[in-house]
Amino acid sequence: MTELLTAAQMRAIEQAAIASGEVTGLELMERAGRGVVEAIFEEWPELAPSWGPAPKPPEFSGQDEEGHRAVVLCGPGNNGGDGFVVARLLKEAGWAVEVFLYGDAEKLPPDAKVNYERWGEMGEVLPLTPQASLELAHRHIVIDAMFGTGLARPLSGLGPFLRDICDCVDAGGSLQLQERWPFSPPVVAIDIPSGICADSGRPIFDEAAAERIRRGSSPVCAAANLTVSFHARKLGHALALGGFWCGKVVCADIGISSQASRTLPRSELVKMANESGSRFKRNGHKYSHGHAVILSGSVGKGGAARLAARAALRVGAGAVTLGCPPAAVIENAAQLNAIMLRAVKGVDGFNAALEDDRINALCLGPGMGVSDESRGLIEAGLKSGRAMVLDADALTLIGRDALLFGMLHEKCVLTPHGGEFARLFPDLAETLAAPATTGPAYSKVDATREAAKRAGCTVLFKGPDTVIADPSGRCSINASVYERSAPWLATAGSGDVLAGFITGLLARGFAPMRAAETGAWLHTECALSFGPGLIAEDLPEELPKVFRALGI
Ligand SMILES: NC(=O)C1=CN([C@@H]2O[C@H](COP(=O)(O)OP(=O)(O)OC[C@H]3O[C@@H](n4cnc5c(N)ncnc54)[C@H](OP(=O)(O)O)[C@@H]3O)[C@@H](O)[C@H]2O)[C@@H](O)CC1
Ligand SMILES: [K+]
């Protein structure tokens, strides 16, 4: 886990470093530019100076044919300033560099202006207007330094360039594949591809741009094969389709010290998981590791609850009981061994089961159905005050029923996917779905935080960019992107397993927010460990391997 920053947090860190005298803004820009160039040479070593002369484009005229060629597209802010630094450093490394500027050089902010002038001593700056000819097919690299964390509104007048950039990115960004000229060079975005909001991962566009998308013409933002950000990743690299637009993200160290760049690596997760002896199962009997109860649906509907129960047991709950309607006992008995089984006849039966005060965690919803009886069971569960995961059908019922919603308490964890979130919080979902016309845009983080505050409990809003928030505003993201991308996790029953992991961790004594964070992290980790071909049943079975790798 890595801490992700908003644009405002990054600006505050930068300002604090400058105010403390630690560094100047100009020095930071220099380090940022250097970081980009180093990242390019690391990603494509054949472009590094030590690799010797560049391949020559036979039909290319008007440029120094010996060197590598880059085009740098600079914008009107400090992102553009970084671009001028990159242009200078590449030129110093022997490259042929062409620089275009979108906007008025006179209005550049001070540090960007200094670097514009430094570049001006080495080469010219052409205006990035519709008449500009970028000749991308004759470059080795395209640098997108148009907009970064300061994007405030939709891009305009850049459509054809954005199309060319996206076409290059689609071509794969591998120099090895580019045996013949002309080719589609890799695109490197400075900080974030231009047009993407760094706080939300969403492209900023207006109705006119939306119409262009509908007509299938120019895109509304750039994309990249490699994105080089600074100090720490931003929310927009992980949320929404940020991972799709950014390609690969590397973070250049620009030498500012701040707590906000603190990371939460695996070792800390292990420490977290082992915080108390009882969680480590060093001692005690099964009930000292918690007892989780998971309610299943009626006959033929028990699969989801069984998956959740298996996951809760594997993640370490001492005991797991599956409670089902009497008619479903035979079906479940035929499937379960280590998981205990109890016939639960309606609300009274559930209340009777809850008299056992060793039961400390519940999971309601998977395969439960949306009957009145299910509603009663949820009400009984909430009244018991137990730590509790509410998933699937339970979320549908709570979304329909203000009374149930009002009974949610701080020991609850809601685990909605997009559709369930919209049923629970229709206004928040609508705001999130509306086109983002100004930056910073409303993000999944904003929506989940607001939802957790409103519900008074932890909310885990599922997706490839899972966001988890508690009512205090604490928030984290479990993004299955980049090196943690596991698209095969989108498989039937995977959500039930996640609910089970969280329930098991609640039973083991994890606080709701931490249970949700850890459950989500382990869920992705199991998927990564298993790999493609995964089905939901595989996830709990992969846990022992994941735990062993973590040293637990
Ligand atoms: N923070 C740090 O620690 C470090 C930051 N660094 C770098 O600085 C970058 C942030 O710089 P930044 O704040 O100047 O923002 P940036 O994205 O360049 O553009 C803002 C300009 O664009 C304008 N504008 C906005 N939208 C527009 C549109 N659609 N169409 C047209 N204009 C538009 C906006 O104008 P305004 O809204 O004021 O009218 C303003 O003039 C960051 O991403 C990183 O690369 C590094 O050097 C290392 C340390
Ligand atoms: K950019």
UniProtKB/TrEMBL annotation:
UniProt keyword annotation of Repeat present:
no
Keyword Transmembrane present in the record's keywords: the answer is: no
What keywords tag this UniProt record?
Answer: ATP-binding, Isomerase, Kinase, Lyase, Metal-binding, Multifunctional enzyme, NAD, NADP, Nucleotide-binding, Potassium, Transferase
Fetch the SUPFAM superfamilies from UniProt.
Answer: Ribokinase-like (SSF53613), YjeF N-terminal domain-like (SSF64153)
Q: Which residues form a coiled coil?
A: none
Q: Can you tell me which residues bind K(+)?
A: 79, 144, 194
Residues spanning the signal sequence: none
What is the cofactor note?
A: Binds 1 potassium ion per subunit.
Where, by residue number, does AMP bind? Answer: 462-466, 495
The UniProt catalytic activity note for this protein reads:
(6R)-NADHX = (6S)-NADHX; (6R)-NADPHX = (6S)-NADPHX; (6S)-NADPHX + ADP = AMP + phosphate + NADPH + H(+); (6S)-NADHX + ADP = AMP + phosphate + NADH + H(+)
Q: Where is the YjeF N-terminal domain?
A: 10-262
Highest taxon of the source? Bacteria
How is the subunit organization of this protein annotated in UniProt? Homotetramer.
Family according to the record = In the N-terminal section; belongs to the NnrE/AIBP family.
| Biological function | Bifunctional enzyme that catalyzes the epimerization of the S- and R-forms of NAD(P)HX and the dehydration of the S-form of NAD(P)HX at the expense of ADP, which is converted to AMP. This allows the repair of both epimers of NAD(P)HX, a damaged form of NAD(P)H that is a result of enzymatic or heat-dependent hydration. Catalyzes the dehydration of the S-form of NAD(P)HX at the expense of ADP, which is converted to AMP. Together with NAD(P)HX epimerase, which catalyzes the epimerization of the S- and R-forms, the enzyme allows the repair of both epimers of NAD(P)HX, a damaged form of NAD(P)H that is a result of enzymatic or heat-dependent hydration.
**NCBIfam families, alphabetically?**
yjeF_cterm, yjeF_nterm
Name of this chain's protein: Bifunctional NAD(P)H-hydrate repair enzyme
Q: What is the lineage of its organism?
A: Bacteria, Pseudomonadati, Pseudomonadota, Alphaproteobacteria, Rhodobacterales
Q: Which gene encodes it?
A: nnrD
